[in-house]
Fold each of these.
Amino acid sequence: MLRLVALRIAMAVPVMLVVATIVFLLLRLSPGDPALIIAGETAGPEALARIRADMGLDRPLFVQYLAWLAEIARGHLGTSVLSKIPVLSLIFDRLEPTLVLALSAILITVLVAVPLGAVAAWRHNSWVDRAVMMLSVLGFSVPAFVIGYILILLFSVKADIFPVQGYVSPFDDPVAALRHLALPSITLALVFMALISRVTRSSLLEVLGEDFVRTARAKGNVERRVLWRHALPNAAVPIITVIGLGIALLISGVVVTESVFNLPGVGRLTIDAILARDYPVVQGLMLFFALIYIGVNLLIDIAYVIVDPRIRY
């Protein structure tokens, strides 16, 4: 176990270096002048040159890259050009809404999608199976922002049950926090429910045809025990994989959902930084997202070993 974790962490270092290089080049080579955005359209050449010098944009590209890597090695992701606040402070200030939204969406997804997929596999070719698959196709087809606006129209504008937008910390008012998080959490969860329920169904259908399942039935076990005690644990590896991928994909979903519901999270910070061409903030956020991806993949590898001990060999 420890050797596996150490190996995965060692592999994460070159991955982070490649991600950092790609992010740096994409931002530097993309069209647009951040100095002109900061100074305004009426700024003169001297003002633009001074801003470029303050941002280090007047130096050669390779020198800028090495200086940026040196700052990262010291644990400093830079300072926002617009707000003059360290990037790490900006991320940590916006982290709570994003984490709470992502965790609530993951919880809803797992609690609903896995049982739905299991029931669809258990009742294969029945109306239950067809209904679950139809909902899965619908979840895949409709974009997250469309789902969000539909939920706002139905449950906020028409029914006036949930707030339209905004965020309340669960540490301040748990009830108000649940009301504000209900619609954005369901919006995110509906998209990933489709993926996880389909994978759960497919994995269980393969396992239900194995010999050990027939043996469990021959011993007189009830069908429910065969499904949840024998079949589902042996189909867990693909399900864990897709849940891990769903957690990573939540990052892109959070960016859209936070904009729809006006949540002050990391996703909204990303959009604001991109529109303002705030290089240090965008670079720091991309590295932060890459670190989340790598951490999720590490947790998936550890979960593999726990679920199926054969993998450690």
Amino acid sequence: MVPVVAFAVLAVLSRKDPSTPVEIGTAMQVVDTSRAALRTTEDVTYEDADLELVAAYVIADGAFVDAAVPVEHSSAWDVAARVLPASELAHIRQLNVVTDGPAGTLAMVHRSGIALDQWVLSIDTAEPTSVLEETIVHELAHLLTLRSTDLATTGPCDGVQLEIGCAKPGTPLAQWAERFWTDPTSSMTHDPDVHVSTYAATSVHEDFAETFLAYVTGSYTGDSPTIRAKLAFFDTQPELAAAAQEVRPRVNVD
């Protein structure tokens, strides 16, 4: 593995309430763009001490570079490859297989420390396929809104300051924070009339991703005006609405 190149976690989907805030760190520097580095796995630091790294694989053009991959691991990647739009799949440069047992941390994405706007996707193979499908949709929301063009992690903030960085002016995450959060730098108390899940209350970007998942799956059946407004927000965002339309038939399909 390339040492000390991975930067802090961008986003984690977990059904547990995290005990510490999610941090993003610097994450934007391209530290080594040589051909050798791009064919090498990079280290990732996990905040969850219970999360075990089982294996790491370089991904290129949506496929494993190493052909010797256990079936369980390739099956997890198959879920991501099937659900994600091709445009976003192309930006995944590494798969990390992790585990802390069922119903814990499900998946997460890190910005690569090797290649700009490339990602390390971590998946817990202890989860059933249906759970992983929905998890990948949640992560897709992060892939579409935490790019270098959307979120700055260094320098002064001319947009909306979030816990994990600066949402640039006019970006979907900045609009979301301005419309639906009173203090985008901290968590909120969970309110079922405001948040589609407990995890959504932990931060602006997790609220965004959890609500995007509900938008894709149609899982929210309540009548909260706030949540309905949040769901309708995605209809005003062409890239997100198009991504949702593309992946919707690929999720919760028996």
